Amino acid sequence: MARLERPGGAPPQLVTASAGNHGRALAAAAETFRLPLIVFTPADAPKTKLEAIRRHGAELRADGRDYDDAERRAKAFATDAGAAFISPYNDADVIAGAATVALEIFEDAPGTDALVVPIGGGGLISGVATVAKAIEARTEVIGVEADVSCAFQTSVRAGRLVEIVPGATLADGLGGNPDPETITFAFIQRLVDRIVTVSEDDLSAAIAGLAATEHLVAEGAGAAGAAALVGKRIDVRGRHVAVIVSGGNIDRARLASLLSNDASQSAE
Known about the structure:
- By secondary structure, the chain is α/β, with parallel strands linked by helices.
- The protein is 45% helix and 14% strand.
- The chain is built from 10 helices and 8 strands.
- The longest helix is centred in the middle third of the chain and has 17 residues.
- The radius of gyration is 19 Å and the shape is globular.
- The model has no long low-confidence stretch (mean pLDDT 93).
């Protein structure tokens, strides 16, 4: 990998916005290549994500009102400082990286005829859908958003990007509006067959269910695909379906609370 440099040999300043996971991944990459990185996040981002960003040595600015505010601050800072802004979704290389998920799925399960994919900014589903349709055009690609923050479902129905007022959700990685100039909307319009939404109860049940039955720790955004099955938002009977679980960075206290509530409800 060629090393980018500023005039005078200084490494380039990198900037990103993140609900947590992208910031953590980029922080790990920046640490490896010894590049300075500033990560802007919402003030209420999960502590487990924020602590991981700090451990990798990135400068953390966790003072955004929400993800939309954090992204605006990051882009403005990058412009003012002449830094490189790396979007967690509106970036061709990020989308290409996400596409490898679909390659692995079809290598391991070539009979897959439907993919269930969480949608935040749309980078993951853009890459996954591109590969899925290239390998088998009849593969159904189903996106999943939170009921309270469904920017892409709303926008696809309108035929244009529509700004929504996102609500608070367990799936913090899926909340907020995409960049008005995002390249992911065109991918979603062209390649995603449908988008469903899930409730907070669906998300809670999916997180608890994955832990109890699969021994898999998933955060809200990561469990969104499973939540679509739990909430019967899609019918997968008789099909070969792959559900992407895209993250496990959930605060310990929140996970314990969800598991406790699930156990209490099961006992009733």
